[in-house]
Amino acid sequence: GGFLGSGPGGAIYKFFLPVQFSDFIFAVFGEEFGLIGIVLLILLYYMLVREIVHIGIKVEDTFAKVYIVGFAFLIGLQILFNAGVSLGILPVTGITLPFVSYGGSSIIALLAGLGVVINIAYTNRD
Hints:
Number of strands: 0
Protein name: Probable peptidoglycan glycosyltransferase FtsW
Structural class: mainly alpha
Membrane topology: Multi-pass membrane protein
EC number: 2.4.99.28
Enzyme class: transferase
Family: Belongs to the SEDS family. FtsW subfamily.
Oligomer: single chain
């Protein structure tokens, strides 16, 4: 992908990847948007996970705290596993990249979990 990438829809190596829309979406994203896009995506994920953990720290209910921090940990692990698979560090596992991959069940489950986090944050605001 280079520094700026080949542009949206401009990736040509994605046709050689077995499951480009779910397992290898990180590689396709890197080819299309380059280093700048990957750094921006990782920064957005970092901000999301950091904010979820921050919400979990502020909540006083123990169950809600464990749920929220566990949800942040789940998102972080999915990001690390998908990036590791795309970089060839880990074997292909079938884990999707949160909020980016094509997996329908994954996106529904992640959005439902994020909705619970937002509800807990809304009911426990100062």
